[in-house]
Amino acid sequence: FWCRVYYISLEFYMGRTLQNTMVNLALENACDEAMYQLGLDMEELEDMEEDAGLGNGGLGRLAACFLDSMASLGLAAYGYGIRYEFGIFNQKIVNGWQVEEADDWLRYGNPWEKARPEYMRPVHFYGRTEHHPDGVKWVDTQVVLALPYDTPVPGYRNNVVNTMRLWSAKAPCEFNLKDFNVGGYIQAVLDRNLAENISRVLYPNDNFFEGKELRLKQEYFVVSATLQDIIRRFKVSKFGSREIARTDFSKLPDKVAIQLNDTHPAMAIPELMRVLVDEEKLSWEKAWDICVRTCAYTNHTVLPEALERWPVDLFAHLLPRHLEIVFEINRRHLENVAAKFPGDNDRLRRMSLIEEGGQKRINMAHLCIVGSHAVNGVAQIHSDILKATVFKDFYEMEPHKFQNKTNGITPRRWLVMCNPGLAEVIAERIGEDFIRDLDQLKGLRKYVNDEAFIRDVAKVKQENKLKFAMHLEQHYKVKINPNSMFDIQVKRIHEYKRQLLNCLHIITYYNRIKKEPNKQWTPRTIMIGGKAAPGYHTAKMIIRLITAIGEVVNNDPVVGDRLKVIFLENYRVTLAEKGIPAADLSEQISTAGTEASGTGNMKFMLNGALTIGTMDGANVEMAEEAGEDNLFIFGMRVDDVDELDKRGYHAEEYYNRLPELKQAIDQIAGGFFSPKQPDLFKEIVNMLMHHDRFKVFADYEDYIKCQEKVNALYKNPKEWTKKVIFNIAGCGKFSSDRTIAQYAREIWGMEPTLEKLPAPDDKP
């Protein structure tokens, strides 16, 4: 029973904590009332809290949803990560361009965290190894201290409180002083910053690997400190035994489950081996068995540029002992491969943890697969792609390791908290239990023709739209028509997510209105938001294109308020909580086979938007749950993309065949949207015409046709709302409670529970 889960992640995208805590503790009304009696406004107080932006996007927000679900399901779970002094940058739009500014979120302190200096741990870097008859020693290292900060994670009304422990880097007192105190005392104290830089800032790349030494230091820092904590806790736990401290590690896999959120904490595998073999003196075979049974790995992407491949020479310099261990893991692994597939040398090369070539690199995904007992993708289609392509060789060797765990979102934050109006009209029909057991939403299917329910759902949506429109007017001075369709695409800016396809629809719709200004067009407000990684030039140009299109469209008197284009500045958790409940249409338009799962798609569905999307990621399962007729599905499937790759994708064919596409591209290329700099967007056009990996033009025609269907249905509010109800009723599967229950049973060997613990003040 006392099995503990350690969810290790370099990102936890938590957002604000106050309202979520009040919801989970059932204190919201009491606090509102108390504030009111003090003559204060709760919403004003809530608005003073900074977002904890310790994540880039999906992967970091998933970790946050998982913490909520693990606590709500009564699992003894710890989230372990880094307490970045600066989280994801704040985005300003200046003259249409993204400008980054540092996110100094700790400026006024963080009331939710408690420093725990008594659990400080040393973390070692650099140095060299010495091989002795009695084992290996890692010596002459530089030491950085890891100082833990604990944040409580309350379950939903079950009196469970788990912990998120984030490590901060501290230089030891002796840092740089003993080695060269030639009177460089001041400099030595100033150099303490070098050690403490480890936890200074979150790397702002989403789905992109940048092989920097500081990033590898961060990855090892969190892993080393966390494993010391895990082993300390394992040794002092009683587990019904009378020993003061356990020295028998054979039971570790029964008591400890380590989940690696992507390959970022992959160093946990060689580090656990180092501790067991070098420090605890276990045999390699025994240690390896323990390691594999303890660790499990979640893959989050198939994009090759996102896979972590660390240069061997960087590794040798920073973590010499771990490199030796990785080489030994690889030697034994390749022996196993050769035994199973004799003479297949190409397979040995493909499956090696070390990639030969220009400079040797360590493939961290291969390390994770070999060193884990379970490997999972994050949506069915993604897990299938892993087995069929990226990890095919590994699947053929150990098929039992591969699983699927479709992502989910917590209904506490993403419905009850951000959309209380909708939560209430649902609860009036089916009770409040759905908040713990989201499958109960299917009980709404019988209300799909209920006039009163249809009216209530539509009314809540209209109120949310008015509220969001007011928010945008106050903060961004933009006036929007709340009776228009709110068409929203919010996610990190990336070529594979195809914000450019959205842009082509905007331009096409604009051109159609201009051509026939007296036709009855469905009015739309198209909102696109998201951050571009600071070094991702194309993504920054995409933002500039969106703002440029907005400048033209929004100031055209012929169009009026039938079409508006808004770039949502500084998209983050807190803005998502405001915007998603107001959305009518959710844009999920990645090239099939590129978005591993997506979770924003689920948030829109749960909050009463309809989805226009490709058969990619979890969209496939959303269509399955709600009925394919109740989503606007368009475009190539994975097979069609493969087929097109075989034939060869030629953008010019589409450009020459589709006059509206040609017109849109010619306008972008000719400076229609940038009259002062006519060739501002020539790189984007050149990319789309000559090297577009994500085949925007191939899906253009079907996308435009699909958007016409969206317009037609929106003109019939009752039929639209019926589809909305089918969507909400199909959301049960997409609760992170379901996801975590599956991890618990199928990977961690634990049983989740909805039992409520007695409150601390309850007398038994």
Please supply descriptive tags for the structure shown above.
Rossmann fold; 764 residues; transferase; Alpha-1,4 glucan phosphorylase; carbohydrate metabolism; Glyco_trans_35; pyridoxal phosphate; alpha/beta
Overview of this structure, please?
The chain has two domains: about 5-15 and about 50-410 and about 745, Rossmann fold (3-Layer(aba) Sandwich); about 480-735, Rossmann fold, CATH 3.40.50. It is built from 31 helices and 25 strands. Strands 1, 4, 7, 8, 11, 12, 13, 14, 18 and 19 form a ten-stranded mixed β-sheet that branches. Helix content is about 45%, strand content about 15%. The mean pLDDT is about 95. The protein starts with a strand and ends in a 16-residue tail after the last helix. The protein has about 775 residues and is α/β, with parallel strands linked by helices. The relative contact order is 0.11.
Give the helix/strand layout.
Layout: E1 4-8, E2 12-15, H1 18-24, H2 28-37, H3 42-46, E3 52-54, H4 58-72, E4 77-82, E5 90-94, E6 97-101, E7 114-115, E8 121-125, E9 128-132, E10 135-139, E11 142-154, E12 161-170, H5 185-190, H6 192-196, H7 213-236, H8 252-255, E13 256-261, H9 268-279, H10 284-294, E14 295-298, E15 309-311, H11 312-318, H12 320-340, H13 345-351, E16 354-355, E17 361-363, H14 364-370, E18 374-377, H15 380-390, H16 392-397, E19 402-404, H17 411-417, H18 420-430, H19 451-476, E20 485-490, H20 499-515, E21 524-529, H21 537-553, E22 563-568, H22 573-579, E23 585-588, H23 600-606, E24 610-613, H24 619-626, E25 632-633, H25 638-647, H26 651-657, H27 659-670, H28 682-690, H29 696-714, H30 717-729, H31 736-748
Parallel strand pairs: 1-4, 1-13, 4-12, 13-14, 14-18, 18-19, 20-21, 20-23, 21-22, 23-24, 24-25
Antiparallel strand pairs: 2-3, 5-6, 7-11, 8-11, 9-10, 11-12, 15-17, 16-17
